[in-house]
Write a structure and sequence with these properties.
The complex is a heterodimer. Chain A is mainly α. Helices cover about 55% and strands about 0% of the residues of chain A. Chain A is built from eight helices and no strands. The longest helix of chain A is centred in the last third of the chain and has 26 residues, at about 150-175. Chain A starts with 17 loop residues before the first helix and ends with a helix. The relative contact order of chain A is 0.12. Residues about 1-15 and about 30-35 of chain A have low confidence and may be disordered. By secondary structure, chain B is mainly α. Chain B contains eight helices and no strands. The longest helix of chain B is centred in the middle third of the chain and has 22 residues, at about 75-100. The radius of gyration of chain B is 19 Å and the shape is globular. The two termini of chain B are about 30 Å apart. The chains are: A mainly alpha, B mainly alpha. Chains A and B meet through helix 1, helix 3, helix 4, helix 6 and helix 7 of A and helix 1, helix 2, helix 3, helix 4 and helix 5 of B.
Chain lengths: ~180, ~180
């Protein structure tokens, strides 16, 4: 759990920063397949048995997402701010039936430059950035701020600055690709 | 620490990174439970994950649209969700400290202070850029996948690759 430097007992409450923990975990498979992963990197040498709980948590989140989208499905269209809807429509995104714009995030687009940037490059930035920052939204912005940690405030401000730059200037440019 | 049998590589237990400072910077499990429990005890984390996943979807924080609105100041939604979570978290932590609440295994709950690193700035900016592009931070990626957006599996793999690259070049990055 970790992170957030707070309730760090696996038995205590929720996984405050399981997100980026789970990402690292997936990069650190059990010993028998470890040889597939190149490099002798200290960062990935840890007692994975002790932290395997966060893989269980991640699988749970996937299952929770599935339950929410099936049993608890909301047939209503996603309400999108008019200004955003208008600017997206200019770029061919007008389907608001899913929480994620499936006109952008789909298997076909993966092979286009635009889709590749949104799906692959975006994911890389998220994985690299959260690891380097030592936490993500849950670790820094939520549990870090809740524990009054100044470094978490710095990190959160940087998340927001990066997000503002990206959403206001980079994403609009990428959508036109 | 259980000894892990390893055929080809060196013994993990010996080479394990035990430097507390480094581990806490990397937000490793620095004060994990001392109690060793059977593997299936981990299932309770899966239950917590299922609950969390449902919340992530129903509160719409996994929505790419909501993330754009947040960064374009077009809706209060995300600020409300995150703000509420911070307040609830702050109250919870206060109560845990004040009442010295223990874990369900009877262990003390310790809080570690975070230290300033350059990564919080550089990594934070990089994550922010990616956050607005993917419309998701690491947790919601898993919920997006579960909610039926299959291609997000590629985003997750790419994020794992990003994590791996960080691990690989960690010593060379400003810290």
């Amino acid at each position: 759990m970790v992170n957030s430097g707070h309730t760090d007992r696996p038995d205590s409450a929720l996984a405050l920063d399981f997100g980026q923990q789970a990402l690292r975990h997936l990069g650190q498979p059990p010993t028998r397949v470890r040889r597939l992963f190149p490099g002798n990197i200290p960062f990935f040498k840890y007692n994975w048995r002790k932290e395997v709980w966060n893989l269980f948590f991640a699988v749970g989140v996937i299952m929770g997402g599935f339950i929410a989208a099936t049993l608890l499905h909301d047939p209503e269209q996603v309400k999108v701010a008019p200004a955003l809807a208008a600017s997206l429509a200019e770029n061919g995104i007008d389907d608001f039936s899913s929480l994620v714009p499936t006109q952008l995030f789909n298997w076909h687009n993966l092979l286009t430059l635009k889709g590749f940037i949104f799906i692959v490059i975006g994911g890389f930035l998220v994985g690299f950035g959260t690891r380097y920052a030592g936490g993500c939204t849950s670790g820094h912005a939520i549990s870090g701020l809740a524990n009054l940690q100044l470094p978490s405030l710095v990190a959160t401000i940087c998340f927001m600055v990066g997000g503002f730059i990206s959403a206001n200037w980079i994403v609009p440019f990428l959508l036109k690709l | 620490m259980s000894k892990i049998k390893s055929g080809a590589t060196t013994d993990i237990a010996e080479t394990m990174n035990t430097d507390f400072e480094v581990r806490s910077l990397d937000t490793h499990c620095v004060n994990a439970s001392e109690v060793n429990l059977p593997f299936w005890y981990n299932l309770k984390y899966m239950l917590a994950g299922i609950f969390f996943g449902i919340i992530l979807v129903k509160s719409e924080v996994i929505s790419w649209f909501r993330i754009q609105e947040m960064f374009k100041l077009q809706s209060f939604h995300m600020y409300g969700v995150i703000g509420t979570a911070v307040v609830v978290g702050a109250i919870s932590i206060k109560l845990i400290k004040k009442l010295k609440i223990k874990t369900i295994r009877g262990e003390d709950i310790e809080f570690q202070d975070k230290k300033f690193t350059k990564g919080q700035v550089i990594g934070g900016l990089i994550f922010g850029l990616g956050w607005a592009i993917t419309g998701a931070c690491p947790g919601p990626l898993f919920a997006q996948l579960g909610s039926g957006i299959g291609v997000v599996a590629v985003t997750i793999l790419s994020a794992v690759a990003g994590t791996w690259v960080y691990g690989k070049f960690r010593e060379k990055l400003p810290n």
